[in-house]
Amino acid sequence: MRERDLRVKICDLADALGLLWTYNPDSRRCLGSRGVPDLMIAGPRGVIPAELKESSGSLSQDQEIWAAWLPGFRVWRPEHWVSGRVREDLERIAA
What we know:
Blueprint: H1 3-16, E1 20-23, E2 39-43, E3 46-52, H2 61-69, E4 74-76, H3 78-83, H4 85-93
Parallel strand pairs: 3-4
Antiparallel strand pairs: 1-2, 2-3
């Protein structure tokens, strides 16, 4: 599964659960610090900053810093969708 396909599935699930989300397609082009997570998903029980990666993808040094500093930071890969981990994480912050 490609990263884009994973993102579509996650955003569709977030919508179905009534969560808010925003997608940052390329943190290298945003103002401020590089490495901002791909997705920020918010619900009444919390916020999940999430970086999406293909199975073999790794975090950049900038992404590692964000991961260390943001509570609840997740790295989601296709196998996390298949295992149900993404759904569990999203249901945890949903109403």
